[in-house]
Please model this.
Amino acid sequence: MSITQDFRALKRLLDDKSFSPILLPLQSAMTVTLPSSSVQHSTHDPFPGQQIYICGFEDTVEVLSSLQKPKKVTIRGSDGSLYTMMCKPKDDLRKDCRLMEFNSIINKFLRKDPDSRKRQLHMRTYSVVPLNEECGLLEWVPNTNGLRNILLKIYKEKGTYMSGRELKNCMVPVGAPLEKKMDMYKEKLLPRHPPVFSEWFLKTFPDPTSWYTARLNYARTSAVISMVGYILGLGDRHGENVLFDSTTGDAVHVDFNCLFNKGETFDCPEVVPFRLTHNMVDAMGPMGYEGIFRRACEVTLKVMKDQMDPLMSVLKPFIYDPLVEWSKPIKGRSNPAAESGEITNEKAMTHVQNIEARLKGILKNKSKARGLPLSIEGHVNYLIQEATDEKLLCQMYIGWAAYL
Model:
């Protein structure tokens, strides 16, 4: 697609001399710097550094091949650089926007804590700008590759790649006995998908120092997002929603639509707390998830537990928020949120209570508490065991690709 041919009005708008400049919606431009001391508030600049405005658009617009056909647009900034944004249609990005704010707050707490600061624990965030209920702009994260693409490329080189048709034949019905699922997973899928993710690190980071730093970054960023994702009930972590930065090794997660344990309500329910498949463990080195990953998980969970009150105060507005569809409205009935602008929902209350319970270390079976609250170490150990349990992984939907 072309800006000059398909979006003439946009070009005319930018060419108009009376049109006021628009700030480029980058993560860096949206991060407020608070004053470090209690004096000199009047002279404090919350946005230090140069502000970048939109000067124009590159003519070519790339249409991506995924379901909603999002558009990749390149914007010329006032600093002379090019910035890429993704325009996503038919998707409510307000939830993603809220979650990015939540992630930024967690990053702030991680920077304050001495243990996590020493390990440079953080979560990669990007700007999300909802334009209305069903479209918005996302900051394009450069130099990233999806886990699925990385692994399939290596499997094709090794000649063990399985086509879509072969995978379809490996699908086991949801109601099938566990033994059958386990047999398919261990006998058919795993032998064709050996752990190879560590090879990507060796190819991408050829010298020893950068390789070691990238592996360290990978294990730590994966640990942080795993813990935050578990607390929030984040699901749908398939190979295309987990990206890796080819310059730093950081794990970058995208698409935060499946929140508050929504994955448990799917036709094929999600039964693992986060993604920690054999390939991901393999890339962490000879110790696997022991050491770096486990310790980073414990530090992150401790920080979230210590900061429970401020984190819950950010999440509680979700209860009264008409943006979040807790349950589909019954046909013929009007949505009460549309009339009053806010809604108190029992389901929302339950989800927030579940988050509170998880932060306290309480495990639940359906809605009943299961024993006493766990220590931080015990909680992390339980989660890692669950995430790597083959009996649970073999029950996951084939598209989630537990075998990758």
Remarks:
- Confidence is low (pLDDT under 50) at residues 329-333.
- DSSP finds 17 helices and eleven strands in the chain.
- The two ends are 35 Å apart (CA to CA).
